[in-house]
Amino acid sequence: DAEITQSPRHKITETGRQVTLACHQTWNHNNMFWYRQDLGHGLRLIHYSYGVHDTNKGEVSDGYSVSRSNTEDLPLTLESAASSQTSVYFCASSDGGFNQPQHFGDGTRLSIL
Amino acid sequence: AQSVTQLDSQVPVFEEAPVELRCNYSSSVSVYLFWYVQYPNQGLQLLLKYLSGSTLVKGINGFEAEFNKSQTSFHLRKPSVHISDTAEYFCAAFTGGGNKLTFGTGTQLKVEL
């Protein structure tokens, strides 16, 4: 079965360090998304990609970057981790734009001390 | 900009009782609506979607929702809940021409014996 896999599931790091969260999907979807989930905010869009070499900023993109070198992967990088970036991060993919259902990974819980 | 309001942060209900989780959105122009469910330590799963057509939408696990344009609502209902329905439920909306899916802050459904 097709799936979307995130790694690691849990990570603890220190402020100022660079952190990369992996996302790999086998749906063969062109569209991939990164969200962060915080209590009281629901899910907020960080970055998204409509295909290889395409990346776009979402509503909370400051301090984050992504790159898309193939269809399957969209890694999320925190250039210099800050405590405000402690959150649960979800990757998603879809075969359409935002008006189509998205398939989500199980999330990465990131703690920045 | 689109906004999504889920007024109830928590809804307790007894098993086999009916339940309604409320969702209101702000903009009706070319709106696409979704309900997702999130079980503990998992990603979001699609329950149902409204893209166009019939205003009554049926989803998985016996859930249904009704698109009400005049009241800008998309409430989720189930006639008889089960313990296994205990989870967090998110309403989400996309407005045509926009560049993000807007999520509500979630409703925690707790089914009790």
Can you tell me the overall shape of chain B?
Answer: globular
- Give the total of beta strands of chain A: 11
Radius of gyration of chain B (CA) equals 13 Å
The fraction of residues in strands of chain B falls at over 45%
End-to-end Cα distance of chain B = 41 Å
The Cα radius of gyration of chain A reads 13 Å
N-end to C-end Cα span of chain A = 37 Å
Task: For the structure shown, list the relevant keywords.
heterodimer, A: 113 residues, mainly beta, seven-stranded mixed beta sheet, four-stranded antiparallel beta sheet, 11 strands, B: 113 residues, six-stranded mixed beta sheet
Helices, strands, pairings?
The complex is a heterodimer of chains A (113) and B (113).
Chain A: E1 4-7, E2 10-13, E3 19-25, E4 31-38, E5 42-51, E6 54-57, E7 64-66, E8 76-78, E9 87-94, E10 103-104, E11 108-112
Parallel strand pairs in A: 2-11
Antiparallel strand pairs in A: 1-3, 3-8, 4-5, 4-9, 5-6, 7-8, 9-10, 9-11
Chain B: E1 4-5, E2 10-14, E3 19-21, E4 24-25, E5 31-38, E6 44-50, E7 56-58, E8 64-68, E9 73-78, E10 87-95, E11 102-103, E12 107-112
What does this structure look like?
The complex is a heterodimer of chains A (113) and B (113). Chain A is mainly β. Chain A is built from no helices and eleven strands. In chain A, a hairpin with an 8-residue loop joins strand 9 (87-94) and strand 10 (103-104). The model of chain A has no long low-confidence stretch (mean pLDDT 95). With 113 residues, chain B is mainly β. Helix content of chain B is 0%, strand content 51%. The mean pLDDT of chain B is 93. Classes of the chains: A mainly beta (113), B mainly beta (113). The interface between A and B is medium-sized, with 21 and 23 residues.
